[in-house]
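Q: Please design a sequence for this.
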């Protein structure tokens, strides 16, 4: 399996997670993969990104096992985590264990560590 460049993105509904991902792909990545864990039956964010951002691939969930093996090394992978997921019980596959983690907070939210801005890195 190739080396994976994975970023997990979490935050409350409407905070700007999908917008943040779009900005990252437009500014840094030539190609990217987008996954939305916890999406419902109306995949608004995946459809939006796939149609509005050149180079974004949204693989079907049922094909993920085969898809991982075919990724070129270094491909940017953005995984949006649904706000309703219980992160304490979330078990990530081994390839995702070593990843970047980003929390996108609504404007005006005061992060617990006293930093400012909309995006909190941990």
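A: Design:
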């Amino acid at each position: 399996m190739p080396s994976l460049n994975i970023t997990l993105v979490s935050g409350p509904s409407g905070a700007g997670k999908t917008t943040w991902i779009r900005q990252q792909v437009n500014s840094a990545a030539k190609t990217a993969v987008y996954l939305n864990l916890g999406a419902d039956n109306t995949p608004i964010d995946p459809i939006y990104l796939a149609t509005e951002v050149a180079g974004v691939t949204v693989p079907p969930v049922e094909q993920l096992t085969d898809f991982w093996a075919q990724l070129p090394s270094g491909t940017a992978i953005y995984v949006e985590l649904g706000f309703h997921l219980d992160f304490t019980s979330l078990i990530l596959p081994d390839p995702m264990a070593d990843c970047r983690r980003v929390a996108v907070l609504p404007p005006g939210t005061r992060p617990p560590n006293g930093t400012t801005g909309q995006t909190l890195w941990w």
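Q: Thanks. Anything notable?
A: The chain has one domain: 5-121. The beta strands are 5-10, 32-37, 56-57, 76-81, 100-104, 119-121.
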